[in-house]
Amino acid sequence: MSNRTKFNRNTLGLVIFLHLDLTMFKSTQGPLNEYLNVRRSDFPDDFLFGASTSAAQIEGSTKSGGKGPSAWDQFIREFPGCNMATQGGQIGISHVAQYFEPYSNTSLDEEASKRAIDFELGWFMEPLVRGDYPESMRRLVKDRLPVFTAEEKELVKGSFDFIAISYYSSRYAKDIPTTPNAAPVSYMVDSNVNVTVEKDGVLIGPNAGGSYTEKSNDNIPISQTLKDDIRIDFVQKHLYQTQTAIKNGVNVKGYFYYSLIDSFEWGEGYTVRYGLYHVDFKNLTRSPKESAKWYHDFIKGRAVAKAMSKDGGMGDDDVELAAEKDSAFRRAARWCGT
């Protein structure tokens, strides 16, 4: 056998990359406001905390577009011979995965929600853990889905040290009736699921424009922009649910907030801001928001409970995360045997 990591369903580690967008679902776990008591000491000593960025969104080419060398560029120049073997590093993979809530309580929509997860997360996780694609994909995609040889199954199964789950908002999943013998249209519709963020005209969670992800607005004074108590409140609740999941047996190894700084958010460009640090897109000045200071103190074990101000926007029922029950990383934990 090769030296690659062999999968052990009791030791698979999850690393969470949190993208603040629409809220996840309301939690039914724990007393109201208990999340305010979450502390660094509630997590294992070796638990990893951090903040992440996307190189493609904030860096670009080393020598063009006005960008200078990054820390990574410098590392490659100074240590060209470094690799995983010499550094004792690990191999992992980050998957984007939303949680899909059934649009209704019908069995068809419940199955649709499971299919949606299979087609988004299971598509990659099932081969890594079990050596084959999800059964629902096999049934619907049929011979358009590749078949692994016995050697390929053995090669891919367990070929990682950790799995990272990167997710934005939850979605509703509604079943689309199957048309027998219909010609395939696109892999985008193979799951036969209608995905939406609203039901009966009501969004699945608070609109991002007024919650954890600020809309860019140059007319708002910088002093006001840096006050983001609602982001602190959201992160506290997420950390509380994360440590609750750990207590219940999910092997979560790290938490990385996205994003460290305001950046270019793909289709939304510079119109939204996810960062712990505010970036003036005109002169690139970076200023720490209150959430950056709070998160720093939390990791150092100095953070104190910080409740939302009454005029901060939303109440507890709006933004409680369901990491223990409903969230994407709890769903991902099914591949860990938990």
Question: How would you describe what is shown here?
Answer:
With 338 residues, this protein is α/β, with parallel strands linked by helices. The protein has a single domain, classed as Glycosidases (TIM Barrel), CATH 3.20.20. The chain has helices spanning 55-58, 71-78, 84-87, 107-130, 135-141, 150-156, 222-225, 229-247, 290-299, 316-319, 328-332; strands at residues 13-19, 48-52, 92-96, 100-102, 162-167, 171-175, 193-196, 198-199, 202-203, 214-215, 252-258, 272-273, 277-279, 286-288. A 5-stranded parallel β-sheet has the order 2-11-1-5-3. Strand 8 and strand 9 (202-203) form a beta hairpin. The longest helix has 24 residues, at 107-130. Mean pLDDT is 79; it is low at 1-11, 20-29 and 310-334. It holds the Pfam family Glyco_hydro_1.
User: Any idea of the CATH class?
Assistant: Alpha Beta
Distance between the termini: 27 Å
Strand order of the largest sheet: 2-11-1-5-3
Tally of alpha and pi helices: 11
Number of strands: 14
Fraction in beta strands: 15-25%
Organism: Hibiscus sabdariffa
Keywords: Signal
Pfam families: Glyco_hydro_1 (PF00232)
InterPro entries: GH, Glyco_hydro_1
